[in-house]
Amino acid sequence: MSRAGWPWPLEGLLAAGPFAVLGAALLVSPGGHLLLALLMERRMPRPREEFRALAVGDPLLALAAALGTRLLTVRPVAAPPWWLPALVAGGWLLFGLWQWRDELRSGFYLPAQACSPTKIWHQLVIYPLFGTGVLVVSAAGLLTRGGGPAAVLTKAALLLLVLGWALLLRYDRRHPRLGHPPYDWRRLRPWPRPWPETSTTLRTVRRG
After folding, report:
1. Could you tell me which of 10, 28, 101, 177 has the fewest CB atoms within 10 Å of its CB?
2. Where are the domains of the chain?
3. Torsion-angle region of residue 186: left (phi > 0), alpha (psi -120 to 50) or beta?
């Protein structure tokens, strides 16, 4: 079935099916985060150092987008106007910039952490790209009509996946993790350890 009218690259991904959407979403997050951590931050991300909403929650959102795609395959809805995904992406980007500033002002991260490769990826790529794709596709899937009991169960599963991500996000705010190491762009490597315990997240390294 044609996906004409959907913004690029959603048009091609939706035409390719749920597994293509799932793979693309996982490639952005947590795949991009993992790759940057390995290649630029020279570390293997450890579960105790990563935020649950990213390591576990983002794959849940990727599954939600795949379920939304499945619903659109069975019962398609009209493509949104081009400005709607653009508006959503702009909103995510503005939120990411606001959060960036707030985390620096509150001492949640040091400036060297906030400028690490994985943090830049999270604020400037994951939020506007991953967030927009998941939100638009999942919402469109939930707006489909008909499909019988199977569609109802699929929508329920989609909502549970999003709820799971939201609960993990709430957990992370109460249980901060390292998330992003302080990074030296002049040497293209993280700061040598031991790191100063001068931010909320760096203090978790000692506790971990």
Report:
1. 101
2. 10-207
3. alpha
